[in-house]
Amino acid sequence: MGDIAEEEEFDNTLKPEFFIFTSHSSENCYLWQSLLDEGFHVKIMGYTEVIDFIYQVDSISNEDKLYPLIFMFRNTIELCLKILFYSRVEKGVSQKAFKSKRKSHRIKKDLWKNVKDVIVNYSGVSDEELKTTELVEKMLFEINELDKNGDIFRYPTSYSLEYRFNNRALDLSNIYVYLKAIVNFLEGCDTELDAIADVEQEIRNEYESETYFGTDWC
After folding, report:
1. What is the span of the domain harbouring residue 60?
2. Is the pLDDT of residue 64 over 80?
3. Which of 125, 134, 175, 179 has the fewest CB atoms within 10 Å, i.e. is most exposed?
């Protein structure tokens, strides 16, 4: 077991050798990311994997972990909300909200406000699902109270270079579990909405097919 643990430790002496140039110039402009993708899945996966890695490394003190974890969690939650703007479901975010709010950093006012109805509309009417959504909303609003303009966690210091969380006792484990729960919920919503969008598309295709072949050509 000791040998396995040693093999899993990060080797910072490795040199990156992963650039492979293609014959098409457009394919040289991104790393492992579809040209049709907005980039959210790749970024969310990258953030979450780094979050888990840093949190689990015992050699890094909690004090040193705090700022990078909060920074990455804040960005991940924002991206998880923004990816729902791109959902393919029929009753998704309105075009007006999509065009004006999808680039905002404000979790409560702009992002959650516009995706909540989509989640509720497709989550069914069970009390359990509604309670879960309400709980996540409460958690997001608590983050918003600390970060109304979307800059507190993105930048660790104020404009006068004062750290925002100095002399505050914070439970890192609680923060990790709390924010991880939000990310898991939003990722689950994205997965469910993708599945629903596929079903809706199949229904449309079937309807269009029946309409086409049912046309009287005589």
Report:
1. 39-211
2. yes
3. 125
